[in-house]
Amino acid sequence: MPDGEPPRQTPCRASCPPLFPRIAHWPKRVYKLCMLDAADALASGVDRFATRPALPPERLDSLGREILALKKRLNAVILAHNYQVPEIQDVADYVGDSLGLSQQAAKTSAEVIVFCGVHFMAETAKILNPGKIVVLPDRDAGCSLEESCPADKLAAVQKTNPKFYTIAYINCSAAVKAISDVICTSGNAVKIVQAAPKDRDLLFVPDENLGSWVIEQTGRPMTLWKGNCYVHVEWTHSVITRIRREYPDAPLVAHPECTKAVRMLADEVCSTEKMVTWCKTSAAPAIIIATEAGMLHRLQKECPDKTFIAAPTENCRCNECRFMKLNTLEKLHDCMANLAPRVELDPETIRRARLPIERMLEISQRPLENAG
């Protein structure tokens, strides 16, 4: 680890010190902004929270070589979400958002899919590749959105209105996908809703913040499920106002899973993949980012001439998804070496869940209506 590089930390909701009133002194390199500096003092008697110890270069190199050798031997592909830790992103074959990952999973010729993300993402890869082995580094890598919408409760709501056309955000279980009409991601949700049958009542699950943003973009009324991403709702209007005052010339890019109070302050609201495009084309030398902290590593790599400022929350200077950060380079190696833990789904769930996913992929390829 270079001198002065702070150790990588796990989420610090319980122990991170309060947000400093001024943050102009924070390091310029982005992904440092969302980690607690090793020199920060804690109150007497307070233990430093658990860390993800940084690997020494020789161990990182060794693991990297072993992972590449395993990938070749297994004819495997490594897919990683934008929120994964930097060392996983750096060995992945593809790094992207849920839509891009789904598209990659749908067309891969690899015999083994190693999915570095959360469980519902690996399930989606299995649905699209039922005859292939799909593994993920940590079986417990879940999602608060997925947990908020059990399939039996969704089925009960669907029975209250036979005209419901269910649009499910991809952050849901295979069982929920199997009883949905179409899937969407944050990158294509507007397009999916625009393509929905005009004579049906739309039920959007499970993210009410993404759903409300889509309503704003399309004008199409929808019934929204009461679910949210626990990471993105931690940003508030007051703390975003504060960071914007601190950096008055820096535009703010926010994920649509943020609350409306935060989205109203943003210069751009978009998926993580579109964040990359937006930041590349922006003339701004510094940009505030309101999404999970793992995104900052990719942005810094693809836009090295820009400074990215991690939007802080009310109580701490970081915002990591504890589920995404369960995956580590060591677990990635082990899941490939052992071909476990595997994602397994029954054939009927795969058959039913595949239809709305394929419908999403087909709609995503259509040209935009009224474009030009």
Give the topology, please.
Layout: H1 57-74, E1 76-81, H2 86-89, E2 94-96, H3 98-107, E3 112-116, H4 119-128, E4 133-135, H5 144-148, H6 151-158, E5 164-169, H7 174-178, E6 182-184, H8 189-194, E7 201-205, H9 208-218, E8 222-224, H10 237-246, E9 252-254, H11 260-263, E10 268-269, H12 272-281, E11 286-290, H13 295-302, E12 307-310, H14 329-338, H15 347-364
Parallel strand pairs: 1-2, 1-3, 3-4, 5-6, 5-7, 7-8, 9-10, 9-11, 11-12
Helix pairs in contact: 1-14, 3-4, 4-15, 12-13
What distance lies between the first and last C-alpha atoms, to the nearest angstrom? Answer: 50 Å
Structural class of the helix and strand makeup?
alpha/beta
Succession of helices and strands: HEHEHEHEHHEHEHEHEHEHEHEHEHH
Helix count? Answer: 15
Q: Say how many strands there are.
A: 12
How much of the sequence is in beta strands? Answer: 5-15%
What's the rounded overall pLDDT mean?
Answer: 84
Could you describe the largest sheet, including whether it forms a barrel? 4 strands, parallel
What gross morphology would you assign?
Answer: globular
Strand order of the largest sheet: 2-1-3-4
- Bin the helical content: 25-40%
Low-confidence stretches: 1-52, 368-372
Radius of gyration: 21 Å
